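Example (one chain per record):
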Amino acid sequence: MNLEIKIKEGLGDLTFNMPVEEIAPIIGLATEVENIDNAADESTTVLHYNDMGLTLFCEGENPQLACIDIDNEDCTLFGKKVFEMNEREIVKLMVSNNYAEQDADEEDWGERRISFPEANIDFYFDDGELTSIILGA
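Predicted structure:
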């Protein structure tokens, strides 16, 4: 599967707002499926692809792809393998592609998060090493 991150669009052939039933024909059946109902009367279907390092979040009454959690070291962003890059290099890559606005914070569980709000992307680091990327529409 193509693991190219496309800002605000998706990952490879997976596109945001794609109906949940269109996902399996592209990347196969999920390792695990969770259904979560929240207080706002919306439901979320979570598709775990453990062997691919992907977790897909599909939201709504007719679930559509809304968010992707990536920990697959083969994914690329702007032609670069981001899991081979350090925090400084990732920030430079984002800025050089016109995403300068950023926010950084230490999460309660210990990871450092760097967010680029205009791109709807978060990078999580543990001891300076990229551990996951959260990508949204």
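Caption: Helices lie at 24-27, 87-96.
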